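During the no-cost extension, the postdoctoral fellow (Dr. R.K.) reprocessed legacy sequence entries with the updated structure-token encoder. One reprocessed record is reproduced below for audit purposes.
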Amino acid sequence: MTFQWAETVFLARWFRDLNDETKENVRALIKRGQLEIVLGGWVMPDEASTHYITVVDQLIEGHQWLDEHLSVKPTTAWVNDPFGYSTTMPYLWKLSGMDNLLILRINQNLKAKLMSKNSLEFFWRPYWKHLRNDSDVLTSLMPFTNYWIDDVCGPNQIICSIFNYLHIGEKGRNAVQVTEENVHILAELLYRQLRVTGELYQFNNLYIGLGEDFSYTRAQEWDNTYLNFEKILTYINNKSEWNMRIKFGTMSEYFANIRQQAKLLTSIGETTRNAASTFPVLSGDFFPYTERNQEFWTGYFTTRPLLKKFSRDIETLIRGADIFNVMAHSMFKHYWVRYAAMTAVAAELTAARRDLAMFMHHDGITEKQELFSVSFAVDIPAFGIEVYTLKPTQQENNIMSYLPVTSEEHPLKISNDHIACVFNASTGMLQSVTVNNVETKMEAQFMIYQSDHGGAYIFGPKGEANRFKTEKLEILRVHGNLWSEVIIRSNGFVERYRLFNIEGIQGLGVHISTEVDIAAVGANNVDVIYRFNTDVNNDINFYTDQNGYQLMGRKTNSSHRIESNYYPMVTMMVIEDSNTRLTLHSKQAHGVSSLTSGQFEVMLDRHTFRDDGRGLGQGVYDNVRVNSDFVLQLEHKKSKTQTQEERKTN
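Re-encoded structure tokens follow.
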């Protein structure tokens, strides 16, 4: 019997408590090919909201542990559970030595199309390598909706559940013990399901997993699975007229077989459906994901935004600490001085990276924080460190002025040497942004979708978004030496627009902060968005980044539901026309869309009592006050240019 293991964190915890003899047995299983490590990152990360730096860090943590303790390096990736797939990840897997990839959760309509073309096995290629194949990852797509035993042998889940020997004898389960009297019946049932599944693929090899979450924790589960399947497999293998051979194997064996088949068929010029001279080539990503009832997994791009913000802050701190640790090590080495804290610091950094990797999967901290800010300008050289001490003073000369705005003020404006922002003095709404004397019309406002069938993962609005009616509106204008801003406050909502009066990149963007407190306004079953309306004529095209690594082109389909046109933004989204490019940079991950020309929106927070039945077991109703930070960047083109490429999945 063979087994595969994907996430190193759980392998490391288990391995830590083994005695030396058992550890050697594990290493022997790997050498014999009975235990295969697939993917091998510290975790299997989410692919929509994670930054590539954190993904690489956790991959290094996992692969280093595997090398140190088991002397193994994964060549195949099992990535069955993310809710949609980024095109960044297979590129990273390839760079880390993995040539093969097995995935599951993509848009069901696209999956059906690939099935109809016998194209569930394909090369996944990055856009920038469209003329080269050195970054291709051979990818196999599982055909059905889940990866548990009940779902994988064929299209009939009831029949497949008969072979779930993990739960034999349990109440409400269908597993049937194999005997000499029924083996021929059970073998034929399995054979027919596998035949149907095999017709969906180009080659005559199938990979069928025999597990589920939290399985094989008891010896009885191993025994029942092995002994019952051994009888069925023996019967099928001896049935020569069925022309089917089944064995316990590994993913690497499966991929080696289909590669060999493709090579053989190409060499003999086969002209059947197996005759492709190479595997199909796909470029792009697999968002958004939907698997049943056309319910789109686009809500989780935003769900629990405070945790997404927190993880990004921790990521920045860890990266900074890593850099300074390397610099310190180099300086000690340069001056031939012993770095006494090197081992301790390395251990602390390793623990921090591993904790952050786990945080990609689990809820962490949900506490509120009261913050104050201090701003002052300094000149620090690259990689320089300065320490400043803040002391109270009796001096009354305040360098900042906070002035309430009255509706008679027109226009309400803040500006620096590069940018001017104009607001409606009565409502506080942004009206235009001027960069280098070129004006772009722009409005921004909080709006809400009323949830119909949404949940922690599913975004399911009843219809169009409506403006949220707020009370106790207060508008402030702040002026200072370093920055000026307009603050718009209402019950549960705050907007800040800040312009820095300094040279450098910080002064070239509009710094926007929003604060949303759903609990404070008592709103239930809502998705809160921040929508911009501009005169940028982007038609129905926009871009979102993938994991902070690259941009992907998106095209809104106005005939489809709103939730199907939402995509993940990790660091930025872009709309543009022949004259202007508008980029919204984000400090944390959000779901975003551009539903009509000139419009784009960011989902800020979500509340729902409904459990969408996707595994969490509850809705999202533990909301806290959430701050989101953005930088709005406007660029005006010197000559009219069209979009270079659409960059959508093809």
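The longest helix spans residues 305-334. The chain has a mean pLDDT of 91. The remaining legacy entries will be reprocessed before the final report is submitted.
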